[in-house]
């Protein structure tokens, strides 16, 4: 039996990016139950990819009750719905065999990793306050992507002088603006910039000066994306809601490394159930951004352990 339901998690604070703001995380939780064994997975539908809560639930409910991971890959396209089902199937298998996910997947036992903490887009004075409050964290991620971003970045650097910084433009710049901003990003110690240009305009990155690494986010979904990224990006941001689950994410990571890309593992704003499978991809990643539960007012029971800036692998009562 496969069930899909909407769950809502209020956020601790309003979360803004260049495309809008939210006060809660709306997720779809998928449960697969058979012979007294239950597996769970979570996804976050994203309007950027024309996904809604309703469309994702409809996709999940279209699946046969006996769906398996292999058949699933050819039945649903990469995206949120396939992610939740795929991760629920992995969890079901772990529970049925009474083995941890890393043993079943044939990968190394995951270790704790430093995760970025995201500061949402706001006025410079408010971003300064956010940065100052979190200045003890070694890695901060800043949401930008407007025509007037430098005062915001300056404020964050002033508030957190010792933290490493990642900038996420969320497709908000063009090539001319990015070329002007890039030297300033370097001056302020930014280590990586995510998706500076719209995905359908990222060909403009070819030939631009490369004073700091550029990471593909909206331009990278699954393995089929990689060929078009060569010469444009240095990193790929792997998110399970884009790959359509852990199965494709593991394959994408390996192929991306073989192609010479470095790895960032990211997330949508969801609960620990959504982050848990991503902790496996985080191993050997250069940058980890799995802070979704830190942005919630309250997480799920048995949620991931966040020890200051370290995120730990899931306990089996949560997932895997």
Q: Write down the overall mean pLDDT.
A: 95
Uncertain runs with pLDDT below 50, 5 residues or more?
none
Separation, N- and C-terminal Cα atoms: 19 Å
Strand order of the largest sheet: 5-6-7-8-9-10-11-12
* Oligomeric assembly: single chain
For the largest beta-sheet, the strand count, sense and barrel status come to: 8 strands, parallel
Q: Give the percentage of residues in beta strands.
A: 15-25%
- Helix amount, in percent? 25-40%
Radius of gyration: 19 Å
Helix segment tally: 11
The arrangement of helices and strands along the chain is EEEHHHHEEHEHEHEEEHHEHHEEE
What general form does the structure show?
A: globular
* Number of DSSP strand runs: 14
Characterization of this structure:
- With 320 residues, the chain is an alpha/beta fold.
- The protein has 11 helices and 14 strands.
- The chain has helices at 53-61, 69-75, 80-97, 101-105, 124-133, 150-159, 175-187, 240-243, 246-258, 272-275, 278-281; strands at 2-17, 20-34, 37-43, 113-114, 117-119, 139-143, 164-168, 190-194, 214-216, 235-238, 262-265, 287-288, 306-307, 310-311.
- The strands form 3 sheets. It has an 8-stranded parallel β-sheet. It has a 3-stranded antiparallel β-sheet with strand order 1-2-3.
- Strand 2 and strand 3 form a beta hairpin.
- The longest helix is centred in the first third of the chain and has 18 residues, at 80-97.
- The protein is globular.
- The mean pLDDT is 95.
């Amino acid at each position: 039996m496969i069930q899909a339901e909407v769950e809502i998690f209020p956020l601790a604070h309003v979360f803004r990016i260049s495309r809008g703001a939210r006060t809660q995380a709306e997720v779809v939780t998928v449960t697969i139950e058979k012979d007294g064994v239950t597996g769970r997975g979570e996804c976050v539908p994203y309007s950027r990819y024309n996904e809604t809560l309703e469309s994702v639930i409809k996709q999940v409910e279209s699946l046969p009750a006996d769906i398996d991971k292999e058949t699933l890959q050819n039945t649903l396209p990469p995206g949120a719905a396939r992610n939740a089902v795929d991760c629920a199937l992995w969890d079901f298998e772990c529970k049925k065999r009474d083995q941890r996910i890393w043993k079943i997947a044939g990968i190394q036992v995951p270790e704790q990793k430093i995760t970025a903490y995201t500061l949402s887009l706001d006025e410079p004075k408010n971003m300064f306050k956010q940065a100052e409050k979190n200045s003890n964290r070694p890695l901060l991620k800043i949401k930008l992507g407007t025509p007037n971003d430098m005062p915001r970045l300056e404020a964050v650097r002033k508030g957190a002088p010792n933290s490493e910084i990642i900038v996420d433009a969320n497709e908000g710049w063009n090539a001319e603006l990015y070329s002007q901003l890039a030297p300033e990003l370097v001056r302020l110690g930014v280590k990586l910039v995510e998706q500076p240009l719209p995905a359908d305009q990222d060909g403009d990155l070819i030939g631009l000066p490369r004073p700091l690494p550029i990471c593909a986010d909206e331009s990278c979904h699954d393995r089929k994306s990689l060929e078009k990224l060569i010469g444009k990006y240095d990193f790929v941001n792997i998110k399970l809601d884009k790959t359509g689950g852990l199965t494709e994410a593991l394959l994408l990571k390996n192929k991306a490394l073989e192609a010479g890309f470095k790895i960032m593992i990211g997330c949508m704003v969801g609960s620990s159930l959504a982050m848990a499978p991503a902790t496996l991809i985080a191993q050997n990643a250069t940058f980890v951004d799995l802070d979704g539960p830190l942005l919630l007012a309250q997480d799920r029971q048995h949620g991931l352990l966040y020890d200051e800036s370290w995120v730990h692998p899931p306990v089996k009562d949560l997932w895997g």
